[in-house]
Amino acid sequence: xxxxxxxxxxxxxxxxxxxxxxxxxxxxxxxxxxxxxxxxxxxxxxxxxxxxxxxxxxxxxxxxxxxxxxxxxxxxxxxxxxxxxxxxxxxxxxxxxxxxxxxxxxxxxxxxxxxxxxxxxxxxxxxxxxxxxxxxxxxxxxxxxxxxxxxxxxxxxxxxxxxxxxxxxxxxxxxxxxxxxxxxxxxxxxxxxxxxxxxxxxxxxxxxxxxxxxxxxxxxxxxxxxxxxxxxxxxxxxxxxxxxxxxxxxxxxxxxxxxxxxxxxxxxxxxxxxxxxxxxxxxxxxxxxxxxxxxxxxxxxxxxxxxxxxxxxxxxxxxxxxxxxxxxxxxxxxxxxxxxxxxxxxxxxxxxxxxxxxxxxxxxxxxxxxxxxxxxxxxxxxxxxxxxxxxxxxxxxxxxxxxxxxxx
Length: 408
Prior knowledge:
This is Sulfotransferase domain-containing protein. Pfam families: Sulfotransfer_1 (PF00685). This protein is α/β, with parallel strands linked by helices. The protein has one domain: P-loop containing nucleotide triphosphate hydrolases (Rossmann fold), CATH 3.40.50. The chain is 34% helix and 9% strand. The strands form 3 sheets. Strands 3-5-2-6-7 form a 5-stranded parallel sheet. Strands 1-4 form a two-stranded antiparallel ribbon. A two-stranded antiparallel sheet has the order 8-9. A hairpin with a 4-residue loop joins strand 8 and strand 9. Helix 10 (295-303) packs parallel to helix 13. The termini are far apart.
């Protein structure tokens, strides 16, 4: 009986030392990595060390839920102040390949959807969980923190994704949501083209909660092609930054028509709609899928109200082939630190689209919906060549306007 008691005492002593060791290591990592605090009813705010005060740019802020992680680090987005604490990585083109070890389940995590529905809807910004104490998890740049005297508010957009339709705007918005300094609206709001008469109060109510220093982003691709919208945006959001996603206008037209088929809005063949009836070979430039690809014509309306420096053009083709490089340029344009990198993506071979590696505990990826990657209707080579010849002069003019050759 004496030996087992001594053995138990010895084992208990080793376990106690083991637990103390991990406690010390965890405390050291907390002190070294973040110098920030978990704030809640149970935990007071830890003051900054006297010999190493926090810089102004690292003001503590309150975490907000988003679609990608339940809680991520939200720091004051001051590019000038951050310049001495970080090194900007050049936006070099890095082609990446699929990691076969990464799961390719295209469905979002069911437990996340169930939890969102349980608290009252799929919009995290309207969730009562915002008022509850939030536990933290490691993020790329530190701990999630709650700030002093910080309040969330619904702010008018700092960034608009104005189009073009069926060019990758939805993918761009999904990728931008990964950034902790981005707060994005849900469905397309259509304020400046359909519901402008409802006023800014209505518009603000459709936007997510955000903190001072975060950028609110709204996406409505119809803004790009709707006359009158640039003047309205300039009047209500004079300092807004604009993101324009473009792709080959011929494939964009086919994708636009395919979407119309899926919604049962198009019943005639593509080739019948794309050409004027009485003049075979004459392109119907007034038809929506065709006119949507006349980028130079639509961009000119925006340049009449906004300087070229306020508009950033994103290649829809590169957004699929090399999303990390395109997102690097977008982050630079918006004045954000580079958080979204190659490690956030993997390629879904089945759909032919990049997917986001999820940050939730489930570790499941987030891929775009089933509507992405649909097969386009087959058109004759003659039709394809006629459309390319039709768009060519408009494309060249667009290249000159934006200073970039997309080689369509």
